[in-house]
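Run: sequence + zinc ion -> complex structure.
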Amino acid sequence: MVDEFKDKVDEAVSIIRDSKYLIVLVGAGLSKESGIPTFRGPGGIWTKYGEPPMNGFQEFLNDPNQYWLNQIERDNEENGPSAEMRKTLAVAVPNPGHIALATLEEIGILKFTITQNIDNLHFRAGNVKVVEIHGNRYKLRCIECGLRVNRDDFLIDDYPPRCPECGGLIKGDGVMFGEPIPAQWLSTCYDQVNLCDAMLLVGTSGTVFPAASFPEIAKRQGAKLIEVNPLDTSLSTLCDVIIRSPSAEALPIILQELKISLDSL
Ligand SMILES: [Zn+2]
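>> structure
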């Protein structure tokens, strides 16, 4: 290991080892390492095809039937943003960064994951305690009671589909522009941020709110912040340790060094 990288890893390991409640905030950078381009980055679908309408949620409320007609049409398209996303996600697998986070949870070190990614890769890697604050591409959700179901398991016999629990409207779980993040998810996030004494920031640019505010809240109450990101971000100045490497490289090494450090206690 290059000396500077090793020093930073050692600092991160020492913070994690001394922490009682480590959580992680994850952004698109981690998914990018699994081959999923960030929406707004080079090659991203919003860069290529334009951003979705800013009033997408309002359009859904105005005409849920049309929303579902569009969904069905998109699901059958061979080209375009939706098809491209579908094909990219179909071949994406958790990378060593995801696996390291899942192992950290499994050995009891990582207490919670807040992710902005919608690709389900944390669950596929083995993480259990996760809030997906932008939703999950493979789920549907009732906008009234928040019930979430797997897209593939939910049989739609009438449009627009209604919630089996409360009769509310069902839409894709992904949080649209103009749609409030479900209050229950946010409240879980704030609870976790308040509990943490150390936070890993993995592949998040710190520009999308409310996620971008979590590190600052944690920092204000004394938590240590460790950034793992090949790029400088607007959160970098808040961080106690910055590891300028891809997560798929840095996280497995942090995990390995942490295990050695814990074994030597
Ligand atoms: Zn419902």
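>> summary
The mean pLDDT is 95. DSSP finds eleven helices and nine strands in the chain.
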